[in-house]
Write a structure and sequence with these properties.
By secondary structure, the protein is an alpha+beta fold. Helix content is 43%, strand content 16%. It is globular, with a radius of gyration of 20 Å. GO terms for molecular function: oxidoreductase activity.
């Protein structure tokens, strides 16, 4: 297979999203296949525990590979987790040529998919057919379900409260504070230098955003300010984001096994492309699901006893709200609605930096 084509496909694959935009994947190139791996040098954060979230992100990259390959008339066949002794080897992706293959409808969307953290238009209704079509698209993957909670449902207020509390806890945790500021890029110059991490402009925090984040860059200062309600500012901001949205969705896998998180990533990326294609915006609201994974795998070793109790109760409440079974895995919780385009987009490192020699 032509290496220029492989590079072109990888260039599209890396537009897949990742937690804090740390881009923790890499590729090994062969004549007829690609090995997709997790990059161990970028896997030290809270959300990387158990590798489930990195597997989800890798699955999103596989979906982009599948879409991009069609442009060059190739099909792919992923062999998931082929080496049980190496959990960082996510998939071996084999290419086969198909001269009759047409370019996927999502190909032109690959570098346009975006997280939109703006406030949405709470008055512009989403047609019922949109929810039905997305549910159907999710059902093609056996055992997966896309569940909705509409903004006009009384239970939606419960979800708003849960998401707000989760964001408050995020700003009351020393490890999460440290990791946030290790990934936050407080200027466009810094973002252009690293081409990873969270560009402050993508947070849609307005002109005072950089000042606010510089104010709380010190954990000691934030801990003091939290006594006067600073963490509740972030709680209320998340609540307002949810209030502005028309609906919340949760993509659910049949289990929390690694393979289901990879498949869930593929499916979620496909849904995200479709959502953006029809002019809707999406923002993952992943704090609580990630906290639930951490509680499951580590019993909340990075949380205070009070936070453990709060998060356990919130997790139970979220599961009850969507009628989830204990064995099911939450792939992504997100809000959706109509909105103006985001002010900025996350950057990607050069494609060469993803290729492992």
């Amino acid at each position: 297979m032509n290496k220029k084509i492989l590079h072109a496909i990888i260039e599209k694959a890396i537009f897949a999203p990742s937690a804090d935009n740390l881009q923790p994947i890499k590729f090994r190139l062969y004549e007829s296949h690609i090995d997709l791996l997790l990059d161990s040098t970028r896997l030290s954060n809270f959300c990387d525990t158990g590798l489930l979230i990195p597997y989800l992100q890798a699955g999103m990259a596989i979906e982009n590979i599948r879409i991009a390959a069609t442009h060059y008339q190739y099909e792919i066949k992923p062999d998931y987790l082929p080496d049980q002794t190496n959990p960082h080897l996510v998939a071996r992706i084999v290419f086969s040529q198909n001269a009759g293959l047409k370019t996927h409808l999502h190909f032109d969307l690959l570098n346009k998919r975006v997280t939109n953290r703006k406030f949405y238009n709470m008055f512009k209704k989403i047609p019922a057919a949109v929810f039905q079509n997305l549910e159907f698209a999710a059902s093609v993957q056996n055992g997966f379900k896309l569940l909705w909670l509409m903004g006009n449902d009384k239970k939606y207020n419960d979800l708003i409260r849960m998401i707000g509390k989760s964001d408050r806890i995020r700003f009351e945790n020393e490890r999460l504070h440290k990791e946030l500021f290790s990934t936050l890029r407080l200027s466009q110059t810094e973002a252009l230098q690293t081409k990873d991490g969270l560009n402050i402009n993508t947070l849609e925090a307005g002109p005072t955003g950089p000042l606010l984040f510089k104010l709380i860059a010190s954990w000691k200062r934030l801990r003091l300010l939290n006594r006067f309600g600073m963490s509740r500012v972030f709680e209320n901001y998340a609540r307002l984001q949810m209030m502005s949205s028309q609906a919340a969705g949760v993509l659910v896998a049949p289990s929390s096994q690694p393979r289901d998180f990879i498949l869930g990533g593929e499916l979620m990326e496909n849904l995200w492309h479709e959502i953006n294609k029809i002019g809707l915006s999406l923002q993952p609201m992943e704090a609580l699901p990630i906290f639930m994974i951490n509680l499951m795998l580590t019993k909340g070793e990075d949380f205070t006893e009070q936070h453990k109790k709060e998060l356990a109760a919130l997790g139970d409440e979220l599961s009850s709200l969507f009628n989830l079974k204990r064995e099911q895995g939450i792939i992504m919780l997100f809000r959706m609605g109509y909105a103006k385009p985001p002010s900025n987009r996350s950057l990607r490192r050069p494609v060469e930096s993803f290729i492992d020699s």
